[in-house]
Design brief:
4-stranded antiparallel β-sheet; two-stranded antiparallel sheet; 21 helices; globular
Length: 520
Amino acid sequence: MGVASRLERVGPDAERYRRLLGHLEPVGRRVRSRFEVDTRALAAVRISFGLILLVDLLVRWGNIEQFYTDDGAYPIEAYEATYSQFTGLSVHALSGELWFQQLLFGIAGLFALAFVLGYRTRLVGFVSLGLLLSLQARNPAVLNGGDKLLRVLLFLALLTPLGERWSVDALRRGSARASVVGFGTAALLIQPLMVFSQNAVLKHQGNTWYEGEALQIAMSNDVMTIFLGNHLTAYPTLLEAMNWAWVGLLAGSVLFLLVTDGRVRAAFALVYVGAFAGMLLTMSVGLFPLVLTTALLPFLTPPFWDALRRLVPTGLLERLPSRARLESIAGRPLERRAFDALEQRGYESKLSFVRAYCRSLLTVVSVLALVSILLYGTAYVTDHDLPDELETSVDQQQWGLYAPNPTEGYSWYAVEAQLESGEEVDAFGNGTITDDRPPDASKEYDTFRERKFMQTVWASGNGDTDGIIAVDYAEWACEQAIDRRGDSVESITVHRFYQPSPIDGEYEETGRFTVVEQAC
């Protein structure tokens, strides 16, 4: 009788539970669909990241001797003395010779190219990530937020099947999934939303973005504006409208990109991509526009890729590589053939355990990555105290580009050489150093990395890093001046010029400051 009564009680409860699950199932499907990514989008992410790595190497190549060798402005001794937390983490710091750096750059370029092609995608991708981290650790003084976002997003992307489509790996398999969903795709989608949302909150802490004034201030910074950006200050009404549009995109990113689905999500993603294209054409912010564009590719849904495919001429599609045309590489990879051989020898159960362990490990890492994005990103913007063991990682989720306010001035630098005759001349150019404002201050730097490095030199000359970076730069500048002007150079002085931005249309007086002096 007791059992019967318990069954009677369990019966209605079980039925209610089944009904509850029935009601929740559509909700679960909708939530799941928001984190589902078309594998063509992941292929585009892979190709884009590979190309960004190649572009990054190409840009760095122009200053490879200056920034990465012992004959440059940042020798290994300076690296070990100023950024001790990175000591031992950089393969590039094993030698200060130029040929060694050129070799590593070449190797990184080959792996990046293999990543674009999707050859052993995950393995090649992690090697590329390792080389990128090594390169960034060798000279942190030339990095900006775009470099940090690149390494974070590349790591998250490698937790997803980037080689599922449009790759050598896909040709080898001969099959591909249309879409994938999991903790890895969730982390990849959440990361840019954390960047946008946190940046919107940080901007709200200032007093210009939510007043519609910030973009005009930013565009008045002549060092940071390029191409079209040099002309936008003539249209203040347009800048105010663009300011509000950008704030809206940042603050509404979760609504526009995560809540939506299908064509609506793809349309919003293209709006963001358009904004990043505008950033690329107007502002010198390094890799940021390229990395942000790549971050939005997973939000492009199947309707977009289907429409794009219809635009591609049939003849071009027929000429694309196929499994039949690439028989030499279309076979199973070497490691999979080795697994097959081991299975035939009776190790099937152990290999099954290894495969299951690797899949579980990937899931665990993906979960931890997703949790860290949410935890650290939220902790930084809310100033919430974390345990000391976790505190050092908070800055890895700090996304404060132009927040809380854009700077209201800009700087450029000049190296003045004092000759034996008493004459003072431009060490790197012709004529003398003056306080005159350059026609286009952005051209005072060869690359954005040089601009970042000179900011570090200025900070070092004011007591940061014990002055080591400033002194090493001055010694390098002495050598460059002597190479250009001979032994008549007695000493050099590095000057910093500061120009308040002409926000109201009027220029204030340029300030000159001494960064470091060095006898040659």
